[in-house]
Amino acid sequence: MSKHKKRSWAEPYKIKMVEPVKMTTREERQKAIEEAGFNTFLLRSEEVYIDLLTDSGTSAMSDRQWAGMMMGDEAYAGSRNFYHLEDAVRKYYGYKHIVPTHQGRAAEHIISQLMIKEGDFIPGNMYFTTTKLHQELAGGTFVDVIIDEAHDPESEHPFKADIDLNKLEELIKEKGADRIPYVSIATTVNMAGGQPISLSNLKEVRKLTEKYDIPIVHDMTRVAENAYFIKDREPGYADKSIPEIVKEICSLTDAATMSSKKDALVNIGGFLAVNDEELFDKARNMVVIYEGLHTYGGMAGRDMEALAIGISESVDYDHIRARVGQVIYLGEKLIQMGVPVVKPIGSHGVFLDAKKILPHLSQDQLPAQSLASAIYLDSGVRSMERGVVSAGRNPETGEHNYPKLELVRLTIPRRVYTQAHMDVVAESVEAVYENAKDIKGLKFVYEPEYLRFFQSRFEVL
Ligand SMILES: *Cc1c(COP(=O)(O)O)cnc(C)c1O
User: Fold this and answer.
1) Which of 13, 234, 303, 353 has the fewest CB atoms nearer than 10 Å to its CB?
2) Is 195 close to ligand 1, i.e. is its CB under 6 Å away?
């Protein structure tokens, strides 16, 4: 064996407790997916073998975090754990003030209601479902100003979440800076396939928005994963630590919403972070109406403690390298098998290109939804649609929004599955791909008004 052979890495932890998962037969899965109306969100988790529905709230906590749970101070006001959380946010992210919330969308609700006026426009690096909906409910219109490469699953651009500065400046000139309450920046961009934004681009965005006096609101749900890609790919950052990069990203923005169910390694929680004193006062007042007192905001004391510890673990280099490394392992395996996926592989999941896998289905026949059902049926692996069903309808015309990307997301929970699980997933997707021409489309039989992908039901065409 060569001395120079690249050495393998392994997870920087060992397993102390296990949770058995159920193996099912094809007949059982057929029954389960029919009962779920061919929507993987409506399956019972007991019917799932490997659950790649989402990386949200599905992380395994460390022994330190579990120990922190026992140190919960469940006082109604001024819990010790809140101050630990506030310290962690200041230390690792650098924002001045935090308002805890039960999860990310609650923080989005507060910031949208406080900053957006009827008729405003909110530019951003591609939409996220709940973020965009809260902007719309506050009277605003989301405008996508991400670079074109983000919409091209073939493009190997290393920073597909970068903002197109021309698109952004044109929008500011067309609508007027006073109609743009803030620019919305996500690290990483979920809907583009978990793709990162570069620090050089974020600095340019900062320069441009300062010229027009427009603040930046940061959706920091996966900021540590974004920082890992910057360290790995962006010139000048190889020797910077993950905490240094995370802090630099946050320093270029004015406020942040966080779903700590992702990067921050807890099962529930979130917060709004702001630097502006006046905005902080308003947010702290508003959280009392919707979430709870400003020192718990919908979280138990023990949950805030686990989150404070999770934040520090999330920026550990060995952790984040193994986390993103596992996602890339699955992605490269699928690429070797010839399965069309979004490239480069993102930070939190592998996104299958359903338009390419099922070329015989039109977008109206819901190819990504159909593919997710087929994968479940093959192996009990649960994935999620990210295509026309997730994109919803245009609120004015009532027509489907037709996104360019029609994807199925295999999302990897943090610290939960092994490399052997990834092998089983890859083999199942390969088997489905080989018989893809037999997969039939779906049609809606029930469709709720908001965020329809969660609860819609379908029938095979
Ligand atoms: C999950 C998520 C949210 C919403 O957070 P919740 O905790 O699910 O309410 C917002 N933005 C992004 C990018 C997300 O992935």
Assistant:
1) 13
2) no
